[in-house]
Amino acid sequence: MTLFPATGTPQRQTGVGIDFWTVLARIGQMVGGDRVSLPVEETTHVPITPLGPNTGRYRSRAVRAVVRPRTADDVRGIVELFADSGIAASLHAYGTGANWGLGSREPARDGAVVLDLSGLDRIRDIDVAQGWAVLEPGVTQARLATLLEGTERMVNLTASSAHTSVVGNALDRGVGLRHQRVEDLMGLEVVLPDGESVRVGWWPEPDRPTPVYAHGLGPSLVQLFVQSDLGVVTAATVRLLPRPEALRVVRLNFTPDRTEAATAAVRRWVAQGLTSGVVKIYNEAAARAYGSPPGRCLVHVCVDGTPEAVQALTGVVTAEATRSGLFTEVSDSDATDPDTPHHDIAVQVERAYAGDPDPTDTLFETKTGHSAGTLDKEGGILLFLPLVPFTGPALARVGELLEQVLAETGIRCGATLNALNADVVDCVVTMRFAREDEHATANAHRALNRLYTLFTAEGFIPYRLDVEHTGWAGRLTAGTGERALAQRLKDLLDPQQVIAPGRYA
Ligand SMILES: Cc1cc2nc3c(=O)[nH]c(=O)nc-3n(C[C@H](O)[C@H](O)[C@H](O)COP(=O)(O)OP(=O)(O)OC[C@H]3O[C@@H](n4cnc5c(N)ncnc54)[C@H](O)[C@@H]3O)c2cc1C
């Protein structure tokens, strides 16, 4: 990786005009030359991407430069320079760039300048009593959670590394252990394609404590900038959740042949309000990372509230589960009994539901085999994320489709079913492969392609896309005129295509 000098003439790059270099030189002066990286040109004239490898082994995009601004003002200045110069290059932004399995830091298309916003890492303001924080995109879930330790508020954590971005994850509609993260986005500070910075949704007012509510009056604009190519987000107001007084995670195991009946039973508990947060159901392959024996699927049912409520609900759920005869094991004491074989993992799981992350990423490393810092270089992981109706037959069908993919490609997929509510499941399909083995890598990508084809044919449509399947956004949206409207907005707000198009376009 070469560093762009703060002063002096930048090295010329094949095929890129002087205007681009003038813009880049000005950016270098604005943010500091050491915060701009360029691709290295090899003797073969194939530039080596400054983004480095990605764990999915998706094709590395030809990136023109990576810029690492430190402030929202830097971002505003950079976007304005791009807009004013009229150069044919677009900006792709990320927070901590840990979009593992979906492309990590890669933009959708070649030729982008990448904005690495991990340096915008200020928690600008926080009000524990009212339940909000103003976060920049580089703020990790571990940092925010540490600040909230011992308070009456908590963060809606994901099961990814503790060192991933709260805002970045929410902007791709990530899913936390309490609910989908977009539900926590109350307001956004966005740099529009012409360089203007606007705030939409709810923002704190210094003189009067208004209730934290995202929609305001009139059209609600926060979601316009989620999975969006209409702006670069420089900060967000994020809801902090009330911390439950008590919390328990009940563990259930069942055999795969009981999938339809067991998931239908769990769905009834969700529909009747017995559970809190996202109920998780792991297929055999995914359950292994949590210590379940071969041949067993796993369910984590979280209950929380006052201590008395938790005791009562734990009793109801375990009694229901035992009475159903569907589960091979029913346990509510893994986290409290140090003698159970599942104790350490169960403690981690309960802590995560309670908003208390593990900064050492023990469980994350068990699942991936790598640390957050080395995963992109050493690990091979692909993700496929469809939504599936929360019914026994639909979830049994998921199992059949995964068996078909196994038969066709030899790839055994892990599947975690995250119940977003009583009707919709976020189905996280995971494929692990040996990244140094070209055949295994090609096979995993073949399996990913089959997943897109097979699942979407059933109506199980993904809610997030990897960088190689961005074209599916157009194919999968019903022909209701919505995409044409989105295109009109894009043309209106960004006629020069300053913000990287293509991620969900
Ligand atoms: C073992 C494992 C477990 C995982 N568990 C979960 C889980 O529980 N839930 C989950 O959701 N994911 C999970 N993931 C996937 C992924 O790691 C997380 O979603 C992670 O939070 C995404 O990385 P990030 O936070 O750095 O987001 P980023 O990579 O920074 O951002 C994601 C995308 O959002 C957009 N974006 C980000 N910032 C901006 C901005 N400022 N302006 C405009 N657009 C922006 C870009 O399109 C970017 O590609 C898991 C992955 C693994 C390997």
From TrEMBL:
Domain FAD-binding PCMH-type: 58-243
Gene3D superfamilies cross-referenced by the UniProt entry: 3.30.465.10, FAD-linked oxidases, C-terminal domain (3.40.462.10), Uridine Diphospho-n-acetylenolpyruvylglucosamine Reductase, domain 2 (3.30.43.10)
Keyword Secreted: no
A Pfam entry, by short name: FAD_binding_4
Entry-linked SUPFAM superfamilies: FAD-binding/transporter-associated domain-like (SSF56176), FAD-linked oxidases, C-terminal domain (SSF55103)
Matching InterPro entries: Cytok_DH_C_sf, FAD-bd_PCMH, FAD-bd_PCMH-like_sf, FAD-bd_PCMH_sub1, FAD-bd_PCMH_sub2, FAD-linked_Oxase-like_C, Oxid_FAD_bind_N
Keywords: FAD, Flavoprotein, Oxidoreductase
Tagged with keyword Protein biosynthesis: no
Protein name in the entry: FAD-binding oxidoreductase
Taxonomic lineage of the native organism: Bacteria, Bacillati, Actinomycetota, Actinomycetes, Kitasatosporales
